[in-house]
Each structure stands twice: as C-alpha cells, then as structure tokens.
Design goal:
The complex is a heterodimer. By secondary structure, chain A is an alpha+beta fold. In chain A, helix 2 packs antiparallel against helix 4 and helix 13 crosses helix 14. Chain A has five domains: 216 residues, Histidine kinase-like ATPase, C-terminal domain (Heat Shock Protein 90); 120 residues, 2-Layer Sandwich (Ribosomal Protein S5, domain 2), CATH 3.30.230; 98 residues, Immunoglobulin-like (Sandwich), CATH 2.60.40.10; 107 residues, Immunoglobulin-like; 115 residues, no CATH class. Chain A is built from 14 helices and 40 strands. By secondary structure, chain B is mainly alpha-helical. Chain B has ten helices and five strands. Chain B has two domains: 117 residues, Arc Repressor Mutant, subunit A; 77 residues, no CATH class. Classes of the chains: A alpha+beta, B mainly alpha. The interface between A and B is medium-sized, with 28 and 26 residues.
Chain lengths: 727, 214
C-alpha cells in the first residue's frame, strides 16, 4: 500500500459540509460504487485530454487496486499515467464549482460536467490523498469533508525513488484512500463483477482504447474489466433525430435491440434500458424514460448517443444531470423534449410488441392452422410434384431393399422415367415369396405423362415374420425393358411378443407438450380374465385414465390378432411448459405389470402460409391483418367495432363469435388470394397486371363464396376458445 | 508364399487409378461399399487397410484429407465402413479386426450404386465432399449467422456491427479478437475452397476496416 503523505498546511473550502451531505453523500450512499467510478472516469478524462493535446496512442491503462478486508471497507488506489497536474490545475480541480475541463482544452470531450466529480469522490474516501506528477514536479493534496484542501508536497522535484514507489515513470496521478462504511462490498470478486455491470462504466469498458485493470492488493490478482451487452436477437430501431433547443440542433442517435430472454431492469446493474451517453464513454443515465421498468420492455435494450457536448459545458445552462446525479433531470427543458421524442418511439414499439391479454386455445388453434394451410394448398394448386430421390434412365424401385413388419402395410415406390411411357407402359409385379404380397400386381400408364418422372406406389404386406423375398418388376410394355427387382425382408412385429404377455409396445414414447396421444398396450389373450380392469398410474406431467375396463369377450375378439389384444391407452400432458421432462406410466393387470417411459417434446413447427392466429393489443385502424413475413393472422381487439361486441359475457355470445369468425374468414381469404398471386398460382390469373385490383377483388369474392363457409365454421370453433390470459 | 500374395494385393491396389465415372453426387457410404466389392471381386480380402487404400485410390476427391489431397482420410472411411455401412445400414458385415463382407441387403444397394456410377440412375440428393472437420464445421456455423443470411439475401446494408461480431464469435468490444478470428475463418474457407464464405469474409473485412467504430 502506498505510504500516506504528511499534511503540512490547509486552505479553507468554498462551501460548508451541509452542502456535501445534502447532495453528494446521498448520491454515494444510494450507489457507493459511484465513488470508484468517478475516480476511474477522472483518469480516463485525463487520458482523453492528453490524447487531444499530444496525439498519444491507445491503449490507455487505468489501474485500480483494492485492499479488501473482511470486516472493514476496502482501501483503494487509482493510478493513471496520463497528464498529471501542476499546482495551478490542482487548485482548479479541487475547487467547488469547476465546470469545464479544468480550464484547459474544452473541446476534448470528457465526462467532466457539473455535479459530482473528482473532489466529491475524494471527500468520500477516508484519509484520501491525491498524488500527481507533472513535468518532474510532485504535488500532494487531500480534501476534507468541509471542503478544506490539505497540502502535502507542493511543486517539489520528484526523485527517482519516489517515482518507483508511486509507479509513475513519467506524468500521472494516484488517488488513495479508504472507502466509507456505507460501501458494503467486502470481496474483491464481487466488486469486480459489480463494476463490470454498472451502467456508468459500460461505454468506457466497451471502448477498446481504454483498459481498466483491477488488482487485489493482497493477492496481486489482476483482472481486466469488461462489459458484454446482451445478445441481439433483433434490431428493433436504429435512427437519428434532432432535438431543437434554444435555437440549436442537437443530434441523437438512437438504437434499440431485442434479445431472446428477459433482462434485469433498472439502474445501476440492469441490462434492460437505454444508455444515454455523450462523447465516447460519458454515460449520464440508464432508463426507458416513461417505460422504465415496464415489463413489456424487459427484453429490450439500447443506446442514445447525444451530441450535447456544447450544451453540457455551457456555463449558462442548468445541468442536464440532476444535482444528485440520479440521471438526466426530467425537469430540464432539453431532457423534456428528448424524453418526449423517445417516449413516442417507445410507444410505437410497445404497440407492436405488446403482448395480447387474450388468447385462443392452443389445441384448437393448431387444428385450425393445419386445416387453413390445407385449404390454401388445395386452392392454390398442387404445384410441381416433389422431385424423386432418384432419376433412373428407365425405371427403378425406391428403395431397392425394404424391411417390412408382419401385419403392417409398407409402401415403396416405382420411379418411372416418362420417356419410356410415351406409347403406353405396363409392368407386372411379382413376389418370389408367396407369403409376401404385392397389393397391386400391375402398374399401367396409359395417358401421356406431363412430368419427367412418374412415381407409383407399391404396397407390400405379409403376415409371416422372418422371411425374405424379392419383388420382380417385369415389363409387359414396352417389351425391350429389362426386369428390375427389389429385396424384401419381413420382421417380427414387436406388438405380437409383449414381454410377459402384457406390455406397452414400444415401451418408450414421446408426447408433444400440451398435446395428447394414444399408446398401444398389448395383452396375450390367454391372460385375459372376465371383468377385470387394467389399473393405470401416471406420473406428472402425464395424465392417463386411472383404470380401463377391457371390452367384452365379443368386442375383444375384434382387436385380437395372433392371440394378442391391442388396447389403446389415451394420454395427455397436464398443461404446457414441460418440454424435456420425463414421466413413467405404469399399467397393471392381475399379477402382470408394465411401464412406459414418456418424454415431453416440443410441438413441431407449423409450416405453411398460416403459422399463427392471434388476438392482438395493437392500436390500429385496421380490424385485422395478415403479417405475411411471419404468417400471422391478427385481429385487433382494441378496434372500436371489436370493443362494441366485447361487453359483459361476450365470450359465449353468438354475435361476438360470428363477428370474430367473419373477420378472420375475410382476412384469411384475402391472404390466400394475395399470396397465391404472389406465388404465381394458376388459380389466381391476372389479366391486366397494370390494374389488378378489380380482378383481385373478384378472386377474393369467389374464394369467400367457395371457401368461406368452411373457414367460418373453423373460426367459429376457434372463437369459442377466445380467453383471457393470465395477468 | 504368403508374402508374395500380400505383395500382389498391395501391388494391385497401388496400380488402381481414379474412377473415371462421375462419383461426386454419390454418398460416401455407397463408394465404400463399392470399394469392398472391388476387393471381393478380385479375390482380395477386404481388410480395413485395403478398404482404406482402395477407396482412396478409386475416389480420391471424396476421401482425402483437408489440405492434403495426397493422403487418404482413414477416419471418414472407418466411419463409413463400420458405423454406417455395418452398424446402421447393414450393407456390410464385420469389423476392423475381422475385415468386411457384403451382406445380402448390401448386394441390392451395390447393384444400385453400380447403376449410379454408370449413369443409369441419377441421385437427386447432393452430398458433401468436404469431411466434417473443424474447418467445415466452423464455416457451416458461419453460414448460419444472421450476418451471412443477410449477405446472401442481398441485404448487406442491414448487417449490424453486433451481427458482424457475432458471426466472428467475438464480443462487440473486442476488435482485435474479431480480426484474429476473421483471419482464421479465411484460412478455413480457403482450405475447403468455399468461395461463397470467402466472399462473405472479404465483405466483413472491408466492413471492419472501413468502419472505425466496428
């Protein structure tokens, strides 16, 4: 630890202690790290001024040494190798009311401004000393709580030994002292972490020209402070605008990003907010203005770079930052204009992003989306057939070898090059093993094929396991073609050999989160006793019926094959948000028991034109819209016409349901037609491309007539599930 | 006598020249199956080392090391022969200790492969030539980034600083690290001759050099 200088004389201060207690003490007590940050920023400012004056090259290093103790606040040493100060400058720096960069280069954009600064931070340190070397002269000063300045060495020639002890080989400044009792952090690691996360340091730590090293004074552990902003998932806004104030224009560069997960909000350590700064690193506030701590902005973060250097240094102007340095003073007329402008932009974002209070039932919604996409596919036309996996010169089986399960149909394909079908095509399919059956033994193509390759399905079936054979395709016409063959093996179907005669087959399955399905429970008929129940126990989050009564003997026969009865057990998940969880379902019948492992998996993404239908809280003059890029069909329930129907008990009222269904149907039909036109569907031909509106209207009318009733019925079902979400 | 037989096998293998047919569209498993049959049909035991040598001699473009086209990629051939063709697809029977043999099922796929090599059947699926090593893995990752997506969809002007740094796997305030990563990406893209990635990296380089604050 650096040796404390000796105080030789004092000079009285300009203001009394009451002022300090009224302003600075409160600010520091609210955010004690600010004391350290003020000292770091003071060093950074010194480098900035030096760079402006002498064209020195970065990186600029600032060293902060903490001597932490278990039961007492740490002592601190902040060292830089920047300009240093002579006695004249020191006097200005430590004087109350210094407003510019100590009267020197006012164009160097530093964080010096009115309010709390170097002297205040020094005053907060017990036994504080500022030791500075400039052009071979050393000066030592301290600051008392009553603003009295204490003097150690004054413009004395510095010796090599002193330089070595202070670790200042050229010019530079060292500030030492002990942090006050209200600085509660005691651990070096915690202090480092907090400093890295503090909003006031973010821009400085992001600036690669400056390096802030933090040392543990006892262990000599060294760390570089870094700030990593949240990962940007989507850039929401990036624009520049001007604030006109007192006849001058001030440029503001605003950027707002969105991240994937919720961020912590608020000062000083939150990530969600707007960082207001000027120059390179001078942060003045971290807030979302009117929307500060508004949950709907919890995934947003951004910056507002303010071109206010001249304004902040104007001695006739009131400070932009409030007296206690809580942030931008909301009463300042410039800030009022700035916040007003930003609030307006944030409101727009909120309207876009605001989560709806209402929802449709997920299960019904998925059904509707599937059906809607099917309808769209149907009306748009099938489009070109899928490309075959292989393109043979003549014809070929695909795959060339297949394993089938006993008692289960398996489809394979015969891919035929249309070149050989011009004058007709007929092929006979024969199995070399009579126990392997080809369901359709002849394939005939009479008409001229439009596509290059024709894909024909071939269905194979067998009831005998563990046999092999070949399917031989022999051309009848054209006769010059060579026969083709494929290999087939029949595997034992596991449903016919349940373990112990009573088992789930298979014994592992997956279920979609929030979905339902049926699983097969296989029972040997020899075990079936009359009037006996199957008892089923399921673990959370899977729900199954507690017991299942076997069908009567007569009905049971219908589901028996090869002496095995296959019973379907329904199951569903309890609510949603269980992805990745596992549960066991146990079934017992008499003295037999079996278990099934169930894994909850996410819903496969819905593909197609429509990917979501949702009520939206957006304030818009439209009543509904289709967001093409995202495939979302939206209805805006804040629309006055919508609100007209949303009276007490509206969810079960027929007029409301019809209204919702009709609105959605019209929008969906319109979306189908417009997208169909864009995708060059032959169903939506446009004669006059210059003025297509009338023809588009005609297409919409036709589809509304043809598809409207079907869609309306679907949307009625969906509208019945309209519900208020959890607040 | 044994020695002379072994020498004969090796001499035969050394004399194999590259397959003259277009094999670029065929998957590697099929080519290994073909190589095993090549050995079997010449009465040579398909031991693993012979399979590696024959596969490489026949199909060098598909089975050479990244940056060393004169050396066979034994690891890939092992994965194809044992993990894929033997364990998963059951086209082969055996292992590295016992050598390999084509199964009955494998014969059907071999016939199909021969037809593919003869051009009688074309596969519409494309298969990667470059083995999945660090170079290919990281270039694939690079191609999944937002910046690359915007670049290829001609929305270059929308690419943000964050996205550039994200693509280079560096924090936004670490320009030096980003530049080091950029250099490494260039190296990888050049080694696997991925010209699309090279063009994108050149764009990134300009963007980083041109933008002082990048």
């Amino acid at each position: 630890m650096t040796k404390t200088p000796e105080e030789k004389r004092t000079e009285p201060g300009e203001v009394d202690q009451g002022y300090w207690q009224k302003t600075t003490l409160e600010a520091f007590k609210n955010d004690p790290l600010r004391m350290v940050i003020e000292l770091i920023k003071n060093s950074a400012d010194s480098y900035t001024r030096l760079r402006k004056k002498e064209n020195v090259t970065p990186p600029f290093e600032i060293s902060v040494k903490f001597f932490c103790r278990k039961k007492k606040p740490p002592s601190i040493e902040v060292l830089d190798h920047a300009q240093g100060m002579d006695s004249t400058k020191l006097k200005q720096a430590l004087k109350y009311g210094t407003q510019t960069s100590m009267g020197e280069d006012t164009e160097a954009v530093t964080s010096a401004e009115k309010g709390i600064g170097l002297k205040h931070a020094m005053m907060a340190l017990r036994g504080n000393w500022l030791i500075t070397i400039k052009d071979g002269l050393i000066n030592e000063r301290n600051k008392h709580l009553d603003f009295t300045t204490g003097f150690g060495k004054e413009d004395e020639k510095v010796t090599d030994e002193e330089r070595k002890k202070l670790a200042i080989p050229s010019n530079g400044t060292l500030i030492t002292g002990t942090l006050p009792e209200y600085f509660h952090e005691r651990k070096f690691a915690t202090i480092c972490e907090r400093l890295q996360q503090h909003f006031l340091l973010r821009k400085l730590l992001q600036n690669t020209d400056y390096r802030v090293y933090v040392f543990d004074g006892w262990t000599k552990e060294k760390r570089v402070l870094e700030y990593r902003p949240p990962k940007t998932e989507k850039e929401i806004l990036k624009e520049s605008f001007k604030i006109v104030y007192n006849g001058k224009e001030y440029n503001i560069d605003l950027s707002i990003n969105k991240t994937g997960e919720g961020l912590t909000q608020g000062k000083p350590f939150g990530d969600s907010g707007l960082l207001f700064y000027y120059g390179e690193y001078s942060v003045v506030d971290f807030t979302f203005c009117r929307y500060d701590k508004d949950f709907s902005f919890s995934r947003f973060f951004g910056e507002a770079k303010m071109g206010i250097e001249t304004l902040i240094r104007d001695p006739n102007e009131a400070p932009l930052v409030d007296e206690k340095r809580r942030g931008l003073d909301p009463e300042h007329p410039f800030n009022k204009k700035l916040f007003g402008e930003i609030n307006q932009k944030l409101r727009g974002i909120q309207e876009e992003e605001e989560e709806s209070r209402y929802f449709f039932d997920e299960y019904e919604l998925k059904n509707v989306l599937r059906e809607l996409n099917r309808i769209y596919k149907e009306i748009k036309g099938r489009g070109p057939p899928p490309e075959p996996p292989i393109k043979p010169e003549t014809y070929a089986f695909y795959p060339v070898y297949a394993s089938i399960k006993e008692y289960e149909l398996r489809t394979v394909f015969l891919i035929i090059n249309s070149v050989i079908t011009k004058d007709g095509f007929e092929i006979s399919l024969q199995s070399t093993n009579p126990d392997i059956i080809v369901k359709q033994p002849t394939i005939k193509i009479e008409e001229n094929a439009k596509q290059e390759f024709i894909i024909k399905q071939v269905q194979l079936y067998s009831e005998k396991p563990e046999i092999k054979g070949e399917i031989v395709a022999t051309p009848v016409f054209p006769p010059y073609l060579e026969p083709e063959k494929m290999g087939v093996e029949v595997l034992e179907n596991p449903i016919f050999s349940p373990t112990n005669g009573f088992a789930f087959v298979p014994d592992k399955t997956s279920i979609v989160d929030g979905g339902e399905k049926k699983v097969d429970l296989c029972i040997d008929r020899g075990l079936v006793k009359s009037c006996s129940d199957i008892v089923i126990a399921s673990e959370d989050p899977v729900v199954c019926p507690g017991k299942l009564t076997l069908p009567s003997q007569e009905n049971l026969e219908k589901c028996v094959r090869k002496n095995i009865a296959k019973i379907e057990i329904p199951m569903k998940t309890k609510g949603t948000e269980h992805i990745g969880e596992k549960a066991t379902v146990k079934a017992s019948y008499g003295d037999k028991a079996t278990s099934l492992t169930v894994t909850i998996v996410p819903e496969p993404t819905i593909s197609g034109l429509f990917r979501n239908v949702r009520p939206s809280a957006k304030n818009t003059k439209k009543i509904s819209d289709f967001i093409t890029d995202e495939g979302i069909l939206e209805i805006y329930y804040k629309h006055p016409l919508f609100q007209k129907y949303m009276k007490k008990g509206f969810i079960s009222k027929m007029d409301f349901l019809v209204f919702v269904a009709d609105t959605l149907t019209r929008e969906a039909v319109k979306a189908c037609v417009l997208t169909g036109i864009e995708e060059n569907s032959s169903r939506f031909r446009i004669f006059d491309m210059e003025n297509p509106e009338k023809e588009i209207e005609g297409h919409i009318d036709r589809e509304y007539f043809e598809q409207g009733p079907k869609m309306h019925e679907m949307f009625m079902k969906l509208a019945r599930t309209f519900k208020l979400g959890e607040e | 006598m044994k020695t002379s037989v072994r020498e004969k096998d090796e001499d035969v293998i050394r004399g194999i020249t590259e397959c003259q047919r277009d094999y670029s569209s065929l998957d590697k498993d099929r080519l290994v199956l073909f190589a095993v049959n090549f050995l079997e049909s010449r009465k040579m035991e398909p031991t693993f080392d012979k399979v590696v040598a024959v596969t490489f001699r026949l199909f060098p473009k598909k089975f050479s090391l990244i940056g060393f086209p004169e050396y066979p990629d034994g690891r890939t051939i092992y994965y194809c022969a044992y993990n894929h063709c033997t364990l998963t697809k059951k086209w082969l029977f055996g292992n590295v200790q016992s050598a390999f043999k084509i199964t009955e099922r494998g014969r059907y796929f071999l016939d199909e492969t021969k037809k593919m090599l003869e051009g009688k059947i074309k596969s519409t699926r494309t298969h990667e030539i470059v083995p999945r090593r660090k170079e290919a893995t990281f270039i694939t990752e690079l191609k999944k980034t937002n910046a690359f997506g915007k670049y290829t969809s001609d929305r270059k002007e929308e690419i943000t600083k964050f996205e550039i740094y994200e693509a280079l796997k560096a924090q936004p305030n670490k320009k030096e690290l980003a530049l080091a990563h950029l250099e490494r990406y260039f190296d990888y893209a050049n080694r696997i001759s991925d010209f699309q990635a090279i063009k994108f990296l050149e764009f990134v380089q300009i963007k980083m050099g041109g933008d002082k604050n990048a």
